Hints:
Blueprint: H1 3-46, H2 54-70, H3 75-96
Helix pairs in contact: 1-3, 2-3
Amino acid sequence: MTDPTARAAELLKEHRESIDRLDAILVYTLAERFKHTQSVGRLKAEHDLPPSDPAREARQIERLERLAEEAKLDPAFAKKFLTFIISEVIRHHEKLQK
């Protein structure tokens, strides 16, 4: 391998290691988030509250879009991501109310 090719291979390896660490952080962060949303779901079920809160969800989406813009992340992607998470949370809350 030439020196530039070897350097490119090393940089690729470093980037992939960072991506792997960040993927682990994402998984553990999502797990922690879902622990809290499960507690919220149990509280809602115990007190006959609706499984979703559209006003809060809208505020959260707006907040995440702003954060995405600040972080130089596509706000549309951030919205899709949070919308997916919210739909999963609501599905879990609905199951708890049955």
